[in-house]
Amino acid sequence: MKKALIAVNIIFALILFSYQSAFSANPHKVITGPELETMMKDGKPIVIVDVREPELFAKGHVPGAINIPYDYGAHTRILKELAPKDRIVFICHGGPMGDELGQILTKNNYTQVYNVAGGMRKWKGPVTK
Length: 129
Hints:
CATH topology: Oxidized Rhodanese, domain 1
Oligomer: single chain
Number of helices: 6
Distance between the termini: 68 Å
Shape: globular
Helix content: 40-55%
């Protein structure tokens, strides 16, 4: 009986460790385009950050988005220009750049950080110029 209880406790500890490791590797939340559209309509403040090049941003972006281009110092700009209390959503070409920037923010104690899965390639919502 004791051996079984010890085995259960070890398994539980391993599961908990695995969960914490996976969570800390990507602590921001990945959302879909429709989830972003719902967030945009819920009445709560939101900062949508498009990290694509200025030329692509100018051709069309999510309404209300600001442009902090990934290749133009985004790694430092996001910490200077975005507040930890903000609800922040990244959108890029396809997702990876937003994931990287989201990790930077969450490592610096930002708590409401999201990235749009598939980026603008998958975005089916409204676009503005």
